[in-house]
């Protein structure tokens, strides 16, 4: 009766084995991707910050009061006004960065969905275990009730047999009583006939004796 629970548990275990077979590889790849994305983002952000800082800074104007001259009256070249601005990242890098950020966001959403699905799976497993215990309890109760019902049916069959035997015995006794009453009535009638004949005979003898006594 519990084969469906065994099949359901086996299917869940098989699914878990398939999902967990490459867990270590997935985790290692995820950590590597996170480190790569973090390093790339940091580098690109630093380059962009340097570019913006360099572009916003005004070039230093040469001072007219300090013009060192070389021999022969030739003025010395001006010192460099500042660091050259960092080049902006190419569009391909920006596209890859955007794709990487989108992939990171999608992975975070998938992780959240996985966490919710795992929690739901655990809840369903607990509910399945509870339902399994309740089902086993109901199966035991049904088995006990079936056994009690079988005992009551056997008891009823035994009592019905006793009642049938009692009715048969009562019918037999009634038949015997009727036959006995018929014999009793017949015996009474025969006895009454005998009494009547004997009384008639006695009366005749008495009449004869009276008649003889008158003639003597």
From TrEMBL:
Compositionally skewed regions (Low complexity) per UniProt: 36-53
Keywords (A to Z) from UniProt: Coiled coil
Keyword Coiled coil: yes
Chain ranges of the Autophagy-related protein domain: 7-210
Keyword Transcription regulation: no
Listed Pfam families: ATG16 (PF08614)
Entries under Gene3D superfamilies matching the protein: 1.20.5.170
InterPro entries in UniProt: Autophagy-rel_prot_16_dom
Region feature Disordered, mapped onto this chain: 35-93
Ranges annotated as biased composition (Pro residues): 76-92
Residue stretches in coiled coil: 93-197
Family: Belongs to the ATG16 family.
The protein's name: Autophagy protein 16
